[in-house]
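Re: [ENG-882] Designed sequences occasionally contain unexpected residues at chain ends

Forwarding the minimal case from QA. Structure tokens:
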């Protein structure tokens, strides 16, 4: 299993035998669909320290993803637990804000979450972009389960995700 880089947002134990790394963008509807699996399918694995989910926002330069990039610039990575809660809410409410103007998005996240632009997020974003390039991540979502890669348009659904995790746990003899 490769060493995990840029693990700023982790759900679960960092030393879990199964590492689910997800490159995503908060404005991507396919990422919202995958994140629903994080919220519904993975909690039992996360709570039992079998799986860690590492969330990596990819500021991919595509017009439709720019609202996600703007949101990422305002997240407070110094409070990862709260940030992960906000991400979950943002994905659930994506249809509410994803067509807002830049100004409206900034107002939305300030009014609803008390967030303002965090200039340190620029460096974090550049590190994740560098990692995405290094790992040949060209689309979001891209999910790595240990070293197994699922890159959109190849989606991974609940049943397959559970099967892959179970196989990885067997390999780890957990």
């Amino acid at each position: 299993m490769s060493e995990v880089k840029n693990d700023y947002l982790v759900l679960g134990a960092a030393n879990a035998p199964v590492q689910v790394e997800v490159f995503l963008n908060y404005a991507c509807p396919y990422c919202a669909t995958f994140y629903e699996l994080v919220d519904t399918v993975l909690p039992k694995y996360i709570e039992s320290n079998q799986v860690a989910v590492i969330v990596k926002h990819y500021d991919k330069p595509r017009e439709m993803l720019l609202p996600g990039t703007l949101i990422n610039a305002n997240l407070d990575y110094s409070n990862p637990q709260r940030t992960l809660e906000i991400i979950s809410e943002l994905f659930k409410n994506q249809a509410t804000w994803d067509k807002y103007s830049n100004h409206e998005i900034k107002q939305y996240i300030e009014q609803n979450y008390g967030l303002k632009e965090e200039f340190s997020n620029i460096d974090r974003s550049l590190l994740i972009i560098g990692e995405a390039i290094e790992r040949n991540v060209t689309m979001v979502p891209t999910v790595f389960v240990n070293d197994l890669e699922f890159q959109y348009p190849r989606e991974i659904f609940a049943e397959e995700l559970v099967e892959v995790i179970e196989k990885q746990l067997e390999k780890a003899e957990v």
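QA comment: On inspection the terminal residues look reasonable. Strands lie at 9-11, 18-24, 51-57, 142-145, 148-151. Proposing we downgrade this to a documentation issue.
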